[in-house]
Structure formats: C-alpha cells, structure tokens
Design goal:
Blueprint lengths: L4 E7 L2 H8 L5 E9 L15 E8 L6 H11 L7 E2 L2 E2 L5 E5 L2 H17 L9 E4 L3 E3 L7 H4 L18
Parallel strand pairs: 6-7
Antiparallel strand pairs: 1-3, 1-6, 2-3, 2-8, 4-5
Helix pairs in contact: 2-3
EC number: 1.8.4.11
Organism: Putridiphycobacter roseus
Pfam families: PMSR
C-alpha cells in the first residue's frame, strides 16, 4: 500500500458510488464514510455538516486523480445542490475534498471540462473543500450493495469520458 494514493469525494448516497468505483481499473480499495462536517466521530444517524463520501485507494501507475474525477462526474448529477436522486440535504452534496493544491488545480480543470462539454443542462455546483479527516462509516454501510444487491442507489454511468484520450 506504500505506493498507493487516496482520493476523497462525495456525490450523494455513498453506497452507489462505492459500488461503481470498486471495479474501476486502478482502484484497490474503497471505504464509505463521512467528510467535512461539524462533529467528531460522526454516525449514520448523526453527522451534521458531513457529506456521505468515499475514500478511494488507488494505484497511480494504473489510474490518475484526473480519471477518478472524470468518472465521478459521469456517475452522479453534479448540477443539483444538496441532492442526488431522492436524497436531499447537505449529506448528499457534490464535493471534492482536495488534499493539496495540485489536487485542487486538477479538480478545477476537470470541472471546467465537464461544464464546457454541455452534457449537463446546467453547470456543476460541485464544491471544493480542503480535506481534513475521513471518518469511516459503520460496518453495515461498507460494501452495502455487495451484500444487498437490490438495495437503493441513484448512481449509474450517464456518459462516456469527459477527458479526451
């Protein structure tokens, strides 16, 4: 794991995002949890200000941060404020939690590409927040859709890649 990197994103209910990302080339581990909120040790029932997000561990020899963000914008609707599908509230916001200025710059670039594509009917409202801490969700939320294949999700691939080959 020493040569792997981590990425932190939120785009609605964490179950669906985890399920789609887990099979992407270069993703070696996924974990759902809470990011960017107001309390220590958040839980599913109490996580004020936190987004439901995912921690992606990836192999930078196989994929890039830019390609991870490209896929992120293809599997959720980044144009809705605090909402994905039937889920409403700040827990379901579209956010990229950047760890350094390089990640922030890449995120801004990808948002620009997404907006310029005009594939969405409105511009992305995805926020950029500095990463502070990732709080893993309870065990019953990890790998939820593997254990509950008919469980709720509003995530699916909507477009081909935004990033030119």
């Amino acid at each position: 794991m020493e040569n792997y990197k981590k990425a932190y994103i939120a785009g609605g209910c964490f179950w669906g995002m985890e399920d789609l990302f887990r099979v992407r080339p270069g993703i070696v581990d996924t974990e759902v949890g809470y990011l960017g909120g107001d309390n220590e040790n958040p839980t599913y029932k109490y996580h004020p200000g936190h987004a439901e997000g995912i921690e992606l561990t990836y192999d930078p020899k196989v994929t890039t941060y830019e390609l991870i963000l490209d896929y992120f914008f293809r599997i959720h609707n980044p144009t809705t404020v605090d909402q994905q599908g039937n889920d409403k509230g700040s827990s379901y916001r579209s956010t990229i939690f950047f760890q350094d200025e390089a990640e922030k710059t890449i995120a801004e670039k990808v948002i620009g590409i997404v907006d310029a594509s005009n594939r969405w009917k409105a511009p992305a409202v995805t926020t950029l927040e500095p990463f502070t801490k990732f709080w893993p969700a309870e065990p019953e939320h990890q790998d939820y859709l593997l254990r509950n294949p008919n469980g709720y999700t509003c995530h699916f691939e909507r477009f081909d890649t935004f990033i030119p080959a």
